[in-house]
Amino acid sequence: MGCAAQCVGAGSCSRRFFLVMFRTCLPAVVCLLGGMTVQANTPVPAAGDAARGKAVYAQCLGCHSPDRHRTGPKHCGLIGRKSGTASGYEYSKAMQQANVVWSAQTLDHFLFAPLSFIPGTKMGVAGIKNAKSRRDLIAYLIVINEQPGCD
Q1: 151 lies in a domain?
Q2: Largest CB tally within 10 Å, which of 46, 52, 65, 145?
Q3: CATH number of the domain that 137 lies in?
Q4: Which of 52, 82, 48, 79 is nearest to 66 (CA)?
């Protein structure tokens, strides 16, 4: 059964269902959400280790938090959200106009080189060049987004 077919007839898909399907049906989700154009030959990042990702996330805590805005926006609700749209956070024009839907794939590109992926973003870090560290961080961000009460 295809990704969309599993949701048909269910009335409405819960956030948890969406996140589970998101993991297994990433290319279709990006397409359905109207996210940024990604070439068909662009690989989806392999799954990472969320426990190691939590350690990588410690580097992010100077500006970000899972559940509240700080210098950077909160990460709860990040997966599946359009760039520059978290309520209550003042984004750069570049982030608001980027038209990116955050997924494992788009996060992988952004975290590699934020200033190249979205020129003009306020996130002024060089990026995470180690692919394994990025995968682990993304796995942790997905876990954060699966927590009850995350919106």
Answers
A1: no
A2: 145
A3: 1.10.760.10
A4: 79
Query: Quick check: helix, strand or coil at residue 101?
Result: strand
**Averaged pLDDT, 73-95:** 95
Q: Which residues are within 8 A (CB) of 119 and not within 5 positions of it... i.e. 6 or more apart?
A: 94
Interval 31-65: pLDDT, tens: 333 444 443 344 455 689 999 999 999 999 999 99
Q: Quote the number of domains for the chain.
A: 1
DSSP H helical ranges for 98-130: 104-112, 114-117
Residue 99 lies in a domain: yes
**Is residue 12 one of the residues assigned to a domain?**
yes
Q: CB–CB of 140/53 below 8 Å?
A: yes
Instruction: Kindly tell me if the per-residue pLDDT of 10 is higher than 50.
Output: no
Task: Assess if residue 139 is contained within a domain.
Answer: yes
